[in-house]
Amino acid sequence: MRFERKRRWGTFAWTPHKLAAAQLHGARAKACLEQRYPLLSDQFSQPQRFDADVEACIRAQAHQATEQRLRDFEARVWRESRRDARNATAEQQAAIREHWLAWRGPATALYYRYVVDLHTGVLDQRRELSQAQTRAAIAVVLVAKGAQAGDWPELIPN
To answer: How would DSSP label each residue in 45-113?
Structure first.
């Protein structure tokens, strides 16, 4: 199967611009609050002392977690798409294969998902499931607010 390997962006690194912005963040936030609420300016706490090493560690962990979450998402989409393509009929599989080989866009998981959805109708099933979950969530909120389900029918998609 044709696919483009996802580029790894490496680790977090301080640039002079990022470091200057991070060092001034506390003072900028305090100045903004003082400007917005001048009568309460003496109530605001002083900005915390900036520690570049601690901040770099926090940002590196957040960067790594975000990248891993995106890679996991893309891997899940690949697996689901390949499963749906394998479960398709022979005619649908041939159409998917032909469309994917002719595809000139990026060979990523989401584009493959689009091609599979286009030929199998799985998208309609996922859309119906999503709409049912949305209707159920809205009904829970309406009941929690003490409203009847028929009070606001325009909020519940069909």
So the answer is: PPPPPP-HHHHHHHHHHHHHHHHHHHHHHHHHHHHHHHHHHHTS-HHHHHHHHHHHHH--S---HHHHH
Q: Which residue has the higher pLDDT, 12 or 148?
A: 12
Among 8, 83, 29, 157, smallest CA distance to 96 is for 83
What is this structure's pTM? 0.67
Q: Is 146 left (phi over 0), alpha (psi -120 to 50) or beta?
A: left
pLDDT in tens, 49-59: 888 889 889 98
* pLDDT one-digit tens code per residue, 104-113: 888 899 999 9
Return d(Cα 110, Cα 74) in angstroms, integer. 8
- Terminal Cα distance for the chain, rounded: 38
